[in-house]
Write a structure and sequence with these properties.
This protein is of the alpha/beta class and 252 residues long. The protein is 28% helix and 24% strand. α7 links the parallel β5 and β6. It is globular, with a radius of gyration of 18 Å. The mean pLDDT is 91.
């Protein structure tokens, strides 16, 4: 049976699997072998053509479902239609391999908030990528039809403030769609915080994701079932077998 990529529209015999969550990180997060495998499937299962993963493909599906474009059978088609409709999008930190497709939009506002390590900062500087702090966005109120980010909030100390900022910059009835690493059968664990003096305080041994340098992106949260109820967010798409969820907040 051929597999269909809903991003680029190609078919393949199998996705490309890679081990993304290494054993050291799995131990830090107290993940069972079964959970580690599921998260690795979430982070890989790459399309051989466009390199989109399970995570970015399901995010693309949520975008297409919530902001419908007539005649769009894949995300590539959707971006072509979104051009005609002048859909205004804020991409807060690159959404992986969806970004090359999103970059075709004339009203895409793409930004990064670099981690503390040298090479990502240098890359962003050389590419002149704008910087935005998700907890203090520079954008005006009521500006975007869609705000998207992927696996960002676990690296943010104040999630409430970040989500409020995302809602603030949305137009009325606009939507914010995002992914986070999410373990549905356990409660959220806070690993770190920023104290009143602006310093990092570790509640658990420090854990990082990122670009290969040890202190890339500090993990503040391991998000669990209470993340949904506490923040009054909605699950728009889900594949529990791949530990993959797309969440939303809406500007009413």
């Amino acid at each position: 049976m051929k597999l269909y990529c809903n991003v680029c529209g190609s078919t393949c015999k199998k996705w490309i699997y890679k081990k993304i969550i290494l054993d050291e990180l799995a131990r830090e997060w107290n993940l069972s072998k079964s959970l580690q495998k599921k998260i690795n499937l979430r982070e890989s299962q790459f399309c051989p053509k466009c390199k989109n993963s399970s995570r970015t493909r399901i995010l693309a599906k949520a975008i297409m479902d919530k902001l419908r474009v007539n005649g769009a059978s894949n995300f590539k088609d959707w971006t072509n239609g979104a051009k005609r409709l002048n859909i205004r999008v804020a991409e807060i930190n690159s959404c992986g391999r969806l970004h090359p497709f999103l970059s075709n939009l004339p009203h895409l506002y793409y930004s990064e908030y670099p981690p503390g390590s040298f090479y990502p900062r240098l890359y962003n500087s050389l590419k002149r990528i704008p910087r935005e702090d998700i907890t203090n966005l520079s954008y005006k109120n009521n500006r975007f039809d869609l705000v998207i980010h992927s696996d960002v909030l676990e690296h943010v100390s104040d999630i409430d403030k970040a989500l409020k900022e995302c809602k603030r910059v949305l137009k009325p009835n606009g939507i914010c769609l995002f992914t986070v690493p999410f373990i549905q059968n356990r409660k959220t664990i806070r690993r770190a915080l920023i104290d009143k003096n602006g310093n990092e305080k570790f509640l658990k041994p420090p854990s990082y994701h990122g670009f290969g340098e040890r202190k890339d992106n500090l993990v503040f949260w391991e998000l669990g079932y209470d993340f949904v109820t506490k923040n009054k967010i909605k699950i728009e798409q889900s594949d529990p077998q791949l530990m993959t969820y797309v969440f939303s907040v809406v500007k009413s």
